[in-house]
Amino acid sequence: MLQWAVLLVLGPVTGQSVREQFTQLILLAPFEVFERDSVVLKCQARKQTELGTITFYKNNKKLPHEGNDYQIQHADLKHNGEYHCTNRHDKYHASSNKVKIQVQELFPRPVLLARPSQPTDGSPVTLTCDTQLSPQKSNVQLKFCFLKNNRVLGQGCTRSREYHIPAIRKGDSRSYTCQAVTESSRIRKTSHQFQIPVQIPVSQPVLTLSTAKANAVERDMATLHCEAQEGSPPIWYQFYHEDVPLGRGTTSSTGGAAFSFSLTAEHSGKYYCTAKNHLRILRSEAVSLFVTVPVSRPVLTLRTPRAQAVVGDVIELHCEALRGSPPILYQFYHENIILGNSSAPSGGGASFNLSLTAEHSGNYLCKANNGGEAQHSDTITLKVTVPVSHPGLILRMPRAQAVEGDMIELHCEALKGSPPILYQFYHENVTLRSSSPPSGGASFNLFLTEEHSGNYSCEASNVLGAQKSEVVTIKVIVPVSQPVLTLRKPRAQVVVGDVVELLCEALRGSPPILYQFYYENITLGNSSAPSGGGAVFNFSVTEEHSGNYSCEANNSLWAQQSDKVTLFITGLPGDRRGSVAAGLTGAMLCMVVLAAGALLLYCWISRKAGEVPASDPTRSHSDSGPQEPTYFNVPGWAELQPVYSNVNSPGGDVVYSEVWRTKKNTHAVASEPTVPANQNSPVIYTEVKAAYTPASRPNSQPPE
């Protein structure tokens, strides 16, 4: 039956408002609360006090409850805390006293004990489940259960705190637990797991002897291993050689013990070990060991017919170990590759003969083995001198053709020859560079210019002589530079009918160079310069020829465009055609007369001054035949027309006359067609030619 605590809280009423006055409110709670108890908290007021809304609080936090009683089912530690209640009425508000609830354990977790604590294999053991009820709950009855690996032992849970095991075995030293349970089974507590350390006497140990090889050889490491398969730790192991202890002994908990030592001839004999724990000591069976003497380190001797080994010589390799049990097997090696072997049944050494080639340079050694660990000699280095072979000169370029500005690599390598090898590079028999790399040939990098075209070779030499490579020819191609387009016209202002010459020239570039001429990005024609230089293009202008002209130079390696040149053509407006035509006709006739007079005057002056003889090439060339007008027939451009003189317009009575001269240009590559010979045409052609000496050439353009 729970005891209840009553606490009255009195508050003054006089001088307070009706809503703020305190009433007497009491929270009733049991003095002691044990786990799994049912607890009821009662909130009561004095008589003649009206109850309003009752609210319960735990640690000043409101509890979700309505009514004058607050009930806790199956109390546990989470219900610990301070509780109080409040009464809220329309006229007043009151708070009760605070009650602290501390839930107590009915009994602590049990502890499992074993007697004796370290039983031996086959001895009886008593298990005890120890716990204590709270004095206030001494009337509660407990039951006890014993478990092994979570399985209940015996008849299950009883009121006895002990469980008896008649004879415990080594396999029984596993996980044991016990449980204390109330009769109502409302409270059940389990002890921690407990291992029963069953003590086992040590069994007879087993001794094993291991060496690095099947036969024990002097200087080998030998290992003795002693282990008892059964026995409670700790176990003390001791090794013996002919009843003489080896070392100080070893203590081990598991896995046995080992003892290692380096063998000598004195270690031959019998070995055994002992194993001991606190219950008994046992001795192993004896193991015999026989130590053989290995071969000593052999000495390799190289016997050659001369001081320096040369290709074709026969040398002798002699290998001998000064000590070791026969038979002894000798093996000879060149760069760790076996050459051959020989056996010495009664001891001593062995020899191996070798006819030298170039590949026999390198390191030699020998090995001696008599069944134990093989011994090898020191390494002897043999250098076979080989003359250099003809070197190969390889040209490595970033592209198929050698281009100015490219970096090329000249690689010279002789496949045979004793180092050091000196490599020399030549251009037209002029030394470029010398190099003596340790191996793999030599290389020489060259940034190409136009002057690097020519023949290249290399030479490889060592102490036995020199050899030259084949000649490699390099032709360096120079990319074409940006061409310059020059517009040559007969006067400052070009008019319809003038003959204009386009000169396109790239100052640099390997020939042949192909030139193409463009008018407003339309191809006019092309010309090739097989030996470099520039190219020209002539045409007679019309009103439609105003615009932008350009050219392109291409030598199959690079194409470059010139800057654009603009040509403005002055035409003849239609409303002034009659008056202008009449004026032009008169002017042209005057010019014809003046030209004829000037020509006669020039010839007379030349004869007088003796500057131009009668057989002057200029005159002869002029008199040899009429010079044809310049005409270009440009495919795809129907507007280009030949130059006409004294053209009668078929549509009127206007007569056009024009006097012009042509100059033989050494750069011109276009053809010069003759004056059309259409006899049925109503057009009449007339032409006047003029020749000038350097002294008499006019300085100004003809009048427009």
Short descriptors:
mainly beta; five-stranded antiparallel sheet; 704 residues; single chain
Give a short overview.
This protein has 704 residues and is mainly beta. The chain is 6% helix and 40% strand. Strands 5, 6, 8, 9 and 10 form a five-stranded antiparallel β-sheet that branches. Strands 14, 15, 17, 18 and 19 form a five-stranded antiparallel β-sheet that branches.
Q: What is the 3D shape?
A: flat
| β-strand number | 57
Q: What is the tally of helical segments?
A: 2
Q: What is the SS-derived class?
A: mainly beta
Report on this structure.
With 704 residues, the chain is mainly beta. The protein is built from 2 helices and 57 strands. Strands 5, 6, 8, 9 and 10 form a 5-stranded antiparallel β-sheet that branches. Mean pLDDT is 78; it is low at 1-22, 573-587 and 609-704.
Secondary structure topology:
Layout (H helix, E strand, L loop, with lengths): L3 E2 L19 E6 L2 E2 L4 E7 L7 E6 L2 E2 L6 E4 L8 E8 L4 E3 L3 E3 L1 E2 L6 E5 L9 E6 L11 E7 L2 E2 L9 E4 L9 E8 L5 E3 L3 E2 L10 E6 L9 E7 L7 E7 L2 E9 L4 E6 L6 E8 L4 E3 L3 E3 L9 E5 L10 E7 L7 E7 L2 E8 L4 E7 L6 E8 L5 E2 L3 E3 L9 E5 L5 E2 L3 E7 L8 E6 L2 E6 L6 E6 L6 E9 L2 E4 L3 E3 L1 E2 L6 E5 L5 E2 L3 E7 L7 E7 L2 E8 L4 E7 L6 E8 L4 E3 L3 E3 L1 E2 L6 H33 L7 H7 L23 E2 L6 E2 L48
